[in-house]
Structures are given as C-alpha cells and as structure tokens.
Amino acid sequence: MRALKHGTMRAHVALALAALVLAGDALQPALAGGFDYKDALTKTIIFLEAQRSGKLPPNNRVKWRGDSGLEDGKLANVDLTGGYYDAGDNVKYGLPLAFTVTTLAWTALAFKPELQSAKELDHVHEAIRWGTDYLLKCASRKKKLWVQVGDPNLDHQCWVRPENMKAPRTLYEIDEKTPGTEIAAETAAAFAASSMVFRHDKKYSRALLNKAKLLFLFAKSHQGSYDGECPFYCSYSGYNDELLWAATWLYLATKRQVYADFITHEAISSSVAEFSWDLKFPGAQVLLSEFNMTSGGGAQNFKTQADNFVCAVLPDTAFHQVFITPGGMIHLRDGANTQYVTGTSFLFIVYSDLLLRTGQSVMCGNQAVKPERLREFARQQMDYLLGANPRGSSYVVGFGANSPTQPHHRGASTPVLPPGYDVNCGLSFGEWFAPDRPNPNELTGAIMGGPDKDDRFVDKRANSSYTEPCTYINSLAIGPLAALAARGAQLVATH
Ligand SMILES: *[C@@H]1O[C@H](CO)[C@@H](O)[C@H](O)[C@H]1NC(C)=O
Ligand SMILES: *[C@@H]1O[C@H](CO)[C@@H](O)[C@H](O)[C@H]1NC(C)=O
C-alpha cells in the first residue's frame, strides 16, 4: 500500500517551471513562534524507537512496540536482526536505512552542544548505534552486503504489525556479480560518519571505519546501479552522488589524501536543488565547501555548488527553482515531501554556521545572501511543520495543535496482539486499514509526508503519500529542532 516515495527526475523539470507561482513568506511571521522546540525534538527522536526491529531493550520508550523480526537472516544462516523499518511497512530497506544513519551521525557531530544541552545526545547516539549494529551484521562477510530483509510485495499483502508478521523474510544482497554502488557507498558513508561519533569507543569506531573503507573500495571497483529496492526505492539520481558523499565522509574521518584525490580528480559533482535519501550532492558540497577543493576537474569549487543549492531553494533569489506552497512550504513532489523540508532546513543551518564562522555569504550571481537569511528560512520551514501553516495544524504526531491521528503505519494502526497471534491477512485491511478512525497507538513524533502543493492535507491513513512517516524525514529534523531548542528562534549559535 506504499505509494512511491518520489517522482522521476523529469519531475525536476516540471518543478523549475512551476516555480513561477511563488509566494513570499511574508505571511508567516504572524503565524510563527511560540513552539516548544524541545518537546518536538524529544518526540522526533522517540519516533525512531517505534521503527526499531529486533529484540527491544527494556528502555524502549514506545510501549506498544515489542520484539519483531527475530529470525531475520535465518534464510542465509546469518544474524540480521535489528535495524529499522523505514516507514509504515515491515521491510528493512538498506538504502534509506543507511541514509538515516548517516544523517543522524552528521546531526550528532554538527549539533553536539545543542543536543547535550537538551539532554538528547545519548538518545541520538543510541539511535545511530541501533542502525550501525545492524549494518555491521549486514557487512559481516567480505565482498558482500545484505541490503534488504523482507519481500515488499508480499509484505504489502498484509496489514499487520511487525510483531505478528507472517510474510517471508526474504534476503537481498549485493556482491561482485551483482553490484549496487548507491547502497554500498551510502553504507560506507554511514559507517565513516558514525566512526567519528563513536571515537570515544575506540574499538567500535575502528570497526566502523574499517568497514567504511572496504565498502567504499567495493563500491568504487564494482560499479553498477542498484535497483533491487525499486519500485519502492528506485535510485533515480544514479550513484555519483553516493560516491562523492562516501568519499567526503571518509575524508572527514581519516583526513587521508587518497580520499581528497578521489574527490578532486575522480568524483563527479553537480548542482541540484534537492537533498534526499536519493540525492546527496548538496550534503557533500556543504561539507566540502570549507576545504576549497574543486570538483569535476576543477571547474567549480564546492562552495559555489553549495551556494547554488541555496540559490535554487530561496524564493528571493533570481535562481530559485523550488516550488513553495502558498503557505510557504518547500514542495518538490508528493510522497514524503517533508523530507525536503527537514533536509533543506538541516543543510541551511549547518551551512549558515560554517559561513558565519568563516565570515562568508552565499553568492547568487551578484547577489550576496547573508547566513541569517538561511536561518530565518530554515526556522520558517520547521515552524510550518509544527503548526505555522494555513491549516494551523501540526504535522508531528502527538505535538501541537490538531496533530495527525491516522499515520499510514501498520504498528500504530493495529491493536496490540499476543505474540504468535495468527492474523488473517485477507481481513486485516478491512479491520484495521480502511476504517476512518484514529490509530489506537500514538506514533509519537512521526512527521507526516505532509500537505500537498496547495497546503491541503486529509488525515487519512489510506492517503499514504501524505500520511506515511519515514525515518529520514525525522533524522533530518532532529538537528534543526535541537538548534531551535538551544538557540532560540533566531538560531543564533551560542558556541
Ligand atoms: C579556503 O579559502 C579561504 C579564503 O581564501 C581561506 O581563508 C581558508 O583558510 C581556506 N581554507 C582551507 C582549508 O584551505
Ligand atoms: C489525499 O490527500 C490529498 C491532499 O491533501 C487530497 O487532495 C485527496 O483528496 C486525498 N484523498 C483521499 C482519498 O482522502
């Protein structure tokens, strides 16, 4: 029942044209402000605990969740328990899972003081480790990576919570014969970034970094696009972005020249208007803008490309491409659209911090855009999700005004059943999916896919493009919310 989480690359073209219909965010300040960012922060992290697969620890805060997927890996005689369900179903997809971990690790690094002052740093570390422990199992064999557990088509024939699922836990892998550069490189990025987070735990950190190096080599030397998760997660953007992204994280983790050489001489980088689980160029560009390296054979430096991302998003530049709804929200395409909202907010705050530290502005042609403008835009985007929008409604479950009650999510919308209870899949949709009533279990902190391009939203679980949550929407919201909680609405850094 999952809708595709993305359109095709052709959608970008349509987008650029549609962007003529613009709305300033002049309307927003009147609506904005007064949000309890700390509460939103805490809740967005709790959502990740609702997505956990495997044997849950006693401190898991989502009381209606139990152990699940305890035999994952058995079909190949390996232990692949743990990790995360990505969204409203019970499949463990490797590509979005690894991206969730990479972005959580970046959050822990970039917003460490803010998370510390909110007493949430340990929770974020636990969230990362829940992912890396699983990914280490997936990468336990040489020249092989398990990339998915669960057959999505069979999974989708039953509306059942993961604790009671019956569909086969089919395993998917990549190896030398069937490569998958996107997923190998993204997993390398997740390991490299996490190795920096866990430096205080030398042994664990070294294990992560070793896997990162091996997987990057594997990704580079066995190139081939990975479509094994398509049509659920199709890589529309190819793998050049993941190779650059992985090399960037390896460079940051090791400062080794071999990665700098790859970045400057071999990697391909281009300017795009999107940062998502599929497309990571702007993330790498923001990270690399500090180092004055050039990309693509020296044509442009990464600062210019990071600037181009900002210029393509901001409505007040001559280069804007991204559609903004009348109520002021970034809208790229239906289907987890809020990932672009949280992802852009994340990059804007991280980039503004770097620009202020180095005394620079964003250059959009001749127009200089001050870092403060990036912060203001990021705050406005996050405020939209929290309730500063035409509906006056929150898009975060259990937070703020009129928050969603019907997230498209199997665990939240079905009753807690005894372990081993035999669910009738044929009847499950009529019993638990179709009825127009609130979910019995609150999916605390889940950010919905969000409203459409006219700021409309119908709180119905059948409408999955709008009501399905995803781990990577939330992973990218944690940093902005931590910054807002610690620094206040102006996002002025205190460190
Ligand atoms: C990058 O260039 C700027 C401006 O020329 C300079 O101040 C800075 O030190 C350079 N950074 C590095 C890492 O070389
Ligand atoms: C799904 O949501 C969209 C956007 O809010 C809305 O236009 C559409 O009518 C909804 N469909 C159903 C079946 O609720």
UniProtKB/TrEMBL annotation:
Q: Which residues form the active site?
A: 408
Q: Name one Pfam family in it.
A: Glyco_hydro_9
Q: InterPro entries from the xrefs?
A: 6-hairpin_glycosidase_sf (IPR008928), 6hp_glycosidase-like_sf (IPR012341), Glyco_hydro_9 (IPR001701), Glyco_hydro_9_His_AS (IPR018221)
Any one biological process term the GO annotation gives: cellulose catabolic process
Q: Enzyme group, top EC level?
A: hydrolase
Q: Does the keyword Hydrolase apply?
A: yes
User: Which positions make up the signal peptide?
Assistant: 1-26
Q: What is its EC number?
A: 3.2.1.4
| Keywords linked to the UniProt accession | Carbohydrate metabolism, Cellulose degradation, Glycosidase, Hydrolase, Polysaccharide degradation, Signal
Give the Glycoside hydrolase family domain ranges. 37-479
Domain of life of the native organism: Eukaryota
What the record says about family reads: Belongs to the glycosyl hydrolase 9 (cellulase E) family.
Protein name in UniProt: Endoglucanase
Q: Origin organism of this chain?
A: Setaria italica
Q: Upper taxonomic classification of the species?
A: Eukaryota, Viridiplantae, Streptophyta, Embryophyta, Tracheophyta
